[in-house]
Write a structure and sequence with these properties.
Shape: elongated
CATH topology of the largest domain: hpI Integrase, Chain A
Structural class: alpha+beta
Radius of gyration: 33 Å
């Protein structure tokens, strides 16, 4: 009977370099004794082949430890799993970090306009938490605990959802590429949080006039045209600062965005005021006819990478300290809805794939709601003698 003392006292016969013994009480468990080491192995037969898998060193592993591991492996084999095949497969399953850098980034560069946002999310959130793990090691419990930890750190629902969406996209791509051993995205149990829209901006005419006055006095002479163009098109900031003259068709009054947020090109229809913004820019002293960009940074001759400082000064002088540049897009959508434009038309103008996304931007003003509420006056109010 095997005991720890028995294994420790096994002698190698003279003239031999090793001795191998089989545990009489545990099927498949063997010990190999060499002059400098004693190791446990598990031997089994599957699909007509004899296979051996190492268990570990003695005395780091005791006889009891080795037997437990051997019994665990026996159960796996009885259930149809080949431990050595699984071990081979595990060596080929990429870690989250390896898959992101090797496969997802090249994919993103060809399908998304910019990888900057995703890189930031991965570097600060996904990589530190999950980067070292193989893609098959992630469980629903891990994802749920991660989501709870992000919530405890007071990240917004929108930010947490962005993290989870990017994480899920890694598995979607791995599944599309048929990466062996990677479970389906559905196995992660990713559920997005309900996101509460915090900015329901609808600029009034007076607020726009104050904003225009502050823009006229901004040291950044390009800012006036950028903000005006955004307000008249509902475009994203990144779309505007990367806009090129070659993408403007003054005949059809359209602006081509070669790669939108969706990764696909889209056309933006230009109103009279939007065309006038471009015409005034071309007549201004800051216009550079040799530059391909419509709103180039005069120092770098490339798109503005940051407008935060000059925009902060303008919005504070306009009495709108909390106004974000992206709120101009909100206000554009709200203005259209308040003036009778259908939500489906607004969806097309904003370039949304889903009507649900558009609904988050389209807010009715209080004046419009009062007008709608007053419709009942003509029927019920009159009948009740209240009008």
């Amino acid at each position: 009977m095997w005991t720890n003392k028995f294994i420790a006292n096994i002698k190698i016969p003279t003239g031999k370099v090793k001795v191998t013994m089989t545990d009489p009480d545990t099927t498949g468990l063997t010990v190999e004794v060499r002059p400098t080491s004693r190791r446990f192995f598990f031997r089994y037969r599957v699909d007509g082949r004899n296979r051996t898998i190492p268990i570990g060193k003695f005395p780091v592993l005791s006889v009891a430890d080795a037997r437990k591991r051997a019994n665990d492996l026996s159960r796996q084999i009885m259930m149809g799993f080949d431990p050595l095949e699984q071990k081979r497969l595990n060596r080929h399953i990429p870690t989250i970090s390896h898959f992101y850098n090797t496969y997802y980034l090249p994919f993103s560069k060809h399908h998304h306009r910019s990888t900057k946002g995703n890189n930031s999310i991965y570097r600060h959130h996904i990589g530190p938490r999950m980067g070292h793990k193989r893609m098959d090691q992630i469980t629903k419990l891990m994802v749920r605990q991660w989501l709870n930890d992000l919530s405890d750190k007071n990240y917004s629902s929108a930010m947490i959802n962005r993290i989870m969406i990017l994480f899920g996209q890694l598995y979607t791509l791995a599944n599309e590429l048929d990466v062996e051993g990677v479970p389906p995205r559905s196995a992660l149990g990713i559920k997005l949080l309900r996101s509460v829209q915090r900015h329901n901006t609808h600029l009034t005419s007076d607020e726009v006039r104050r904003l225009a006055f502050a823009l006229d006095h901004s040291p950044n002479k390009h800012l006036k045209y950028i903000i005006s163009y955004l307000l008249m098109t509902g475009a994203r900031r990144s779309e505007a600062v990367h806009a090129k003259w070659e993408h403007i068709n003054f005949t059809t009054r359209t602006w081509l965005v070669p790669i939108a947020k969706s990764g696909q090109p889209r056309h933006i229809y230009l109103s009279n005021a939007a065309i006038r913004v471009l015409d005034e820019l071309r007549s201004s002293e800051i216009f550079d006819p040799d530059n391909e960009y419509i709103f180039p940074n005069p120092r770098t001759h490339k798109p503005f990478s940051c407008l935060h400082h000059s925009w902060k000064i303008v919005r504070e002088e306009a009495g709108l300290p909390d106004l974000r540049i992206h709120d101009l897009r909100h206000s554009y959508a709200s203005t259209l809805v308040n003036n009778g434009v259908s939500i489906y038309e607004v969806q097309h103008l904003l370039g949304h794939n889903s009507i649900k996304t558009t609904q988050r931007y389209a807010h009715l003003s209080s004046e419009k709601l009062f007008q709608s509420a007053a419709v009942a006056d003509g029927t019920y109010g009159k009948a009740l003698g209240m009008t």
